[in-house]
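Training component of the fellowship. As part of building independent skills, the fellow (R.M.) carried out the full modelling exercise for a liganded target. The chosen ligand was FE2/S2 (inorganic) cluster. The inputs are recorded below so that the supervisory panel can assess the work.
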Amino acid sequence: SRLEDSVKKTVAENPVVVYSKTWCSYSSEVKTLFKKLGEEPLVIELDELGPQGPQLQKVLERLSGQHTVPNVFIGGQHIGGCTDTLKLYRKGELEPLLSKANAK
Amino acid sequence: SRLEDSVKKTVAENPVVVYSKTWCSYSSEVKTLFKKLGEEPLVIELDELGPQGPQLQKVLERLSGQHTVPNVFIGGQHIGGCTDTLKLYRKGELEPLLSKANAK
Ligand SMILES: N[C@@H](CCC(=O)N[C@@H](CS)C(=O)NCC(=O)O)C(=O)O
Ligand SMILES: N[C@@H](CCC(=O)N[C@@H](CS)C(=O)NCC(=O)O)C(=O)O
Ligand code: FES
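Fellow's submitted model of the complex:
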């Protein structure tokens, strides 16, 4: 579908993409972490897209297997949600992923 | 207002009350913490109350100064949100509050 293609394009062309909701603290935590690491992610706020928001959330579920927010992609690769991202960060595995994605 | 009185009554008559939203991870964290501490809070899911949900959220803001969820009351006292509750727990101050509230 066109929406699916647009998501694939978005995550392929941007080193870090966060599908988020503006009111969600888990989404805020992830956005804050990236900023702290000097990364400027592309943030898509699903609650600010009117009816396209829920459609996008469905497409993301089809593509990534994840229906929740935040939904994080680095270097085109699906990373997961807030907990997954923080886990990688604590294991020291997040920053190498970011460097690799930024170098592309 | 009648809704305001009902909130005051709810928090006065129940040792632990959590105003929550079913999809919210911060709300889940707080509910999980109380269960881990052997506490069975009264949980009110604001997203399951139809149009009364947003009204209740406004009343809570008037009464507690807090417009976000989760909104936690212990022994009739406004505690705060997820971060506040976790902070009290880590400082060892949450369990004494629970004992006191349960003893009433
Ligand atoms: N463990 C996941 C939890 C994800 C989750 O439950 N997200 C909630 C918001 S905090 C959600 O997407 N709920 C459904 C919705 O908002 O559509 C994570 O760390 O990201
Ligand atoms: N620091 C607060 C954050 C509270 C917060 O921002 N809650 C969000 C959901 S995670 C909220 O209520 N957003 C507005 C809404 O859902 O109406 C806490 O720990 O509870
Ligand atoms: S909506 Fe509360 S943490 Fe996501």
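The panel noted the following from the submitted structure. The interface with chain A takes residues 24-26, 82 of chain B (CB under 8 Å). Chain B has a mean pLDDT of 97.
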